[in-house]
Amino acid sequence: MIETKLTELLEDTADHTPVGPPPLAAVRAGAARRRRRRTAGITGVTVVAVGAVIAGSSLLTSPTQTAPVTSPTPVPPPPAMRLVGFGHAAIAIPAAWPTNKSSCGTPYQDTVQIDDPSAVHLCKSDRPKGVESVQLTGVPPSLGYHADETILVDGVRAERQRTSCMGGWQGTRVCIGAVGIPSLKVWFYAESSTSAEDVDRILDRIQILRDRSGVPSYSSLGGAPTGPLARSYTPLLTAAGLKVQYKRVMSPSYPDGTVLGVSPAVGTLLPVGSTVTVTVAG
């Protein structure tokens, strides 16, 4: 009796329940959510696995890894140089060196001394530390110059005064050396208040130039009380392979023929055969 009533109730409910197409959109959405959950799970496992591999590789390789290679400190380029000289003998000096930066003949900064006008002043000037200089003269330096040994400079006989240093307690320690080439009538006198090695380095840059010639000095030639005479200077220019052109100016203060100046300046390197203009009183 109960079963018969239950069957009738179910059949009656089915007759009154609407039947439509299956909910495909909902099914697909549920399937997509399930796929995303599975993919996320797989991706997480993959990341963990890859991380474990990387960590393991690091543990395996780290003991044998070397320090990263660093580039060596770049070596600064050598300074630009220029040549100064008398005749065929010249010396290379830094291009930035000025001429005759001195007081009473004593340099107060790196410089080349050529006919230094301050040297005639009878005063005392202290040389600062770290100053290098080279002096060119047409006669042996007067401050105790002597030849300790004979050397060759590009095949030409020269005399070398060994470098020595003085001072160092209260005053500035100054190192001095010289090279003379008597056959060319030129002496190079180097000083440094840094080290003896700096003096030797300067003097090692002397060279003989057959195709070029430095305008020689005239200040040490003597002559008239007021200055050297052109007749004594002209042979030096000729011996250096340079031509001479005179420029005469009226000057009541100097005797006729006194050398008042030259152009290009003394010490300038020129091709052999170049003309030097000598200004003379007349």
Q: Brief overview, please?
A:
The chain has 282 residues and is α+β, with helices and mostly antiparallel strands. The protein has helices at 2-15, 24-61, 196-203, 230-239; strands at 81-86, 89-94, 102-103, 106-107, 111-114, 132-137, 149-153, 156-166, 174-181, 186-192, 206-208, 212-214, 243-249, 259-263, 269-271, 275-281.
Explain what you see.
The protein has 282 residues and is an alpha+beta fold. The protein has 2 domains: 79-120 and 127-210, Protein Transport Mog1p, Chain A, CATH 3.40.1000; 211-282, Trypsin Inhibitor V, Chain A (2-Layer Sandwich), CATH 3.30.10. Helices cover 25% and strands 30% of the residues. It has helices at 2-15, 24-61, 196-203, 230-239, and strands at 81-86, 89-94, 102-103, 106-107, 111-114, 132-137, 149-153, 156-166, 174-181, 186-192, 206-208, 212-214, 243-249, 259-263, 269-271, 275-281. The strands form 5 sheets. The protein has a 6-stranded mixed sheet, covered by helices on one side. It is globular, with a radius of gyration of 46 Å.
User: Could you give the order of strands across the largest sheet?
Assistant: 5-6-10-9-8-7
The multimeric state of the shown protein is single chain
CATH C-level label of the largest domain: Alpha Beta
Beta-strand share of residues:
25-35%
Specify Rg, calculated over alpha carbons. Answer: 46 Å
Show unreliable segments. 1-7, 16-62
Shape: globular
**CATH fold assignment of the largest domain:** Protein Transport Mog1p, Chain A
How many helical elements?
4
SSE order, one letter for each helix or strand: HHEEEEEEEEEEHEEHEEEE
The count of domains is 2
User: Which whole number gives the mean pLDDT?
Assistant: 79
CATH architecture of the largest domain: 3-Layer(aba) Sandwich
